[in-house]
């Protein structure tokens, strides 16, 4: 039997590693691109031919010719935001309708989910998680508590199911003394328009569809959102997202058996960033942190929020590589470090005076990163076209990381454009 392969691509840090660009670069080698979790809180930015696009719910393989793109059952979808994103792409000459399919089992983010998101954050006070307020958490909560509204429901008794969910949410909001309904009617009207708009797309049983494609020998690239350290089980809980961002999430979020998984591409930045609240052991509060933010344009693609910046954390990366079974590493934004005299890498933590190379159960206090320092390369790498041109100090940095992480770094990104990508031999 001719069976296709499934490779998985995911972030290894706290999200924002540059997954969108890498999916776009790898897409020519695959027949199908499938998103397996997350919602419109994650923006994947792609730049090519002088244009910049930010995708929130739509898979990043959409720009490469006739490839099939699938939004899997593990994704949560907001019809109004999906409509805005799809229309924007259509305007720029990319009509998605012939090549985008949506799983009937994907859950819908309702307008009241966004209100619940705000209400819960207000309740938490100073223990805020720092959500994007897009309703992701409450939607996954409804999914797990078996109260969710799904894409497939659009085809059958939708109005009744919607009203039942809405009334439940309003009762919860009332119990939380939440009364800020400003602009809700307009949002709901737009949301319903989005539901109508979605009917132009094919709703599928993605688990059957993907397995059928594999049986016919086609290859699938699974695209994750956010990063490993935001995984609901393995991330820095409770400052995490509400889904499984790790490799296992691809199986559950698309209906693929684990024996189908081939390569697992782990994406990391040459340094580290985090958005929102939560622990971040290597965070820099000094001039260096500000410099990383400015050179790397570290502001959220969807929210515009400033990202917190720090040196690369190899303790967290080793952990992420292990829980995902990463086979190849992809290093992004190497060029951001071009001007630094010295580059630091955290190789261990000191917790309560004890040295550890394990990512601990709780990282919210008393963690001191232990650094190794390496000389910087002081070279503008954005124009380089092959690894032979790498400065010796950069080559040493790569060798050091490969040795520490025991995983090969296969692709190096030296700028935001599709062309600024070097595949190592």
Q: Secondary-structure blueprint of this entry?
A:
Elements: E1 6-11, H1 19-26, E2 32-35, E3 44-48, E4 51-55, E5 68-71, E6 76-77, H2 79-91, E7 100-103, E8 107-108, H3 111-124, H4 136-144, H5 158-175, H6 184-198, E9 202-204, H7 206-215, E10 220-227, H8 248-254, E11 261-269, E12 272-274, H9 287-295, E13 308-310, E14 312-313, H10 314-324, E15 328-332, E16 342-351, E17 354-356, E18 367-375, H11 392-405, E19 409-413, E20 421-423
Parallel strand pairs: 1-10, 1-11, 2-5, 2-10, 5-7, 6-8, 7-9, 11-15, 14-16, 15-19
Antiparallel strand pairs: 3-4, 12-13, 16-17, 16-18, 19-20
Helix pairs in contact: 2-6, 3-4, 3-5
Entry keywords:
22% strand, 425 residues, 30% helix, 4-stranded mixed beta sheet, alpha/beta, 11 helices, 10-stranded mixed beta sheet
Can you tell me about this structure?
With 425 residues, this protein is an alpha/beta fold. It has helices at residues 19-26, 79-91, 111-124, 136-144, 158-175, 184-198, 206-215, 248-254, 287-295, 314-324, 392-405, and strands at 6-11, 32-35, 44-48, 51-55, 68-71, 76-77, 100-103, 107-108, 202-204, 220-227, 261-269, 272-274, 308-310, 312-313, 328-332, 342-351, 354-356, 367-375, 409-413, 421-423. A 10-stranded mixed sheet has the order 9-7-5-2-10-1-11-15-19-20, with helices on both faces. Helix 2 crosses helix 6, helix 3 (111-124) crosses helix 4 (136-144) and helix 3 (111-124) packs parallel to helix 5 (158-175). The longest helix is centred in the middle third of the chain and has 18 residues, at 158-175.
């Amino acid at each position: 039997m001719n069976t296709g392969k499934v490779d998985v691509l995911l972030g290894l840090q706290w999200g924002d590693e540059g997954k969108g660009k890498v999916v776009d670069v790898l897409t020519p080698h695959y027949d199908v691109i499938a998103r397996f979790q997350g919602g419109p809180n994650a923006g994947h930015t792609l730049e090519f031919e002088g244009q910049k696009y930010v995708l929130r719910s739509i898979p990043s393989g959409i720009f490469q010719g006739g490839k099939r793109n699938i939004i899997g059952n593990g994704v949560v979808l907001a019809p109004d935001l999906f409509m805005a994103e799809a229309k924007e792409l259509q305007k720029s000459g990319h009509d998605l309708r012939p090549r985008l399919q949506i799983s009937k089992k994907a859950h819908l983010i309702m307008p009241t989910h966004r209100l619940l998101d705000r209400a819960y954050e207000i309740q938490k006070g100073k223990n805020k998680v720092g959500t994007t307020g897009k309703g992701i958490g409450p939607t996954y909560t409804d999914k797990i508590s078996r109260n969710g509204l799904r894409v497939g429901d659009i085809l059958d008794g939708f109005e009744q199911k919607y009203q039942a969910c809405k009334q439940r949410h309003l009762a919860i909001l009332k119990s939380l003394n939440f009364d800020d309904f400003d602009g809700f009617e307009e949002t709901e009207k737009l949301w319903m328009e989005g539901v109508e708009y979605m009917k132009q797309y094919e709703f599928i049983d993605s688990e059957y569809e993907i397995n059928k494609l594999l049986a016919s020998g086609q290859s699938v690239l699974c695209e994750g959102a956010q990063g490993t350290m935001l995984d609901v089980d393995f991330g820095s809980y409770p400052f995490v997202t509400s889904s499984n961002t790790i490799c296992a999430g691809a199986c559950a979020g698309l209906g693929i058996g684990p024996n189908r998984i081939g390569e697992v591409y782990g994406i990391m930045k040459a340094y580290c960033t985090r958005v929102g609240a939560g622990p971040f052991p290597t965070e820099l509060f000094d001039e260096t942190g500000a410099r990383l933010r400015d050179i790397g344009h570290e502001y959220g693609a969807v929210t515009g929020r400033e990202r917190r910046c720090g040196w690369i954390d190899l303790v967290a990366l080793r952990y992420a590589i292990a829980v995902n079974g990463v086979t190849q590493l992809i290093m992004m934004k190497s060029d951001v470090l071009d001007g630094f005299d010295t580059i630091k890498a955290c190789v261990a933590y000191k917790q309560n005076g004890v040295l550890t190379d394990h990512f601990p159960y709780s990282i919210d206090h008393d963690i001191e990163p232990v650094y190794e320092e390496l000389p910087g390369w002081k070279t503008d790498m954005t124009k380089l076209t092959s690894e032979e041109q790498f400065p010796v100090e950069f080559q040493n940095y790569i060798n050091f990381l490969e040795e520490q992480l025991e995983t090969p770094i296969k692709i190096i990104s030296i700028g935001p454009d599709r062309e600024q990508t070097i595949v190592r031999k």
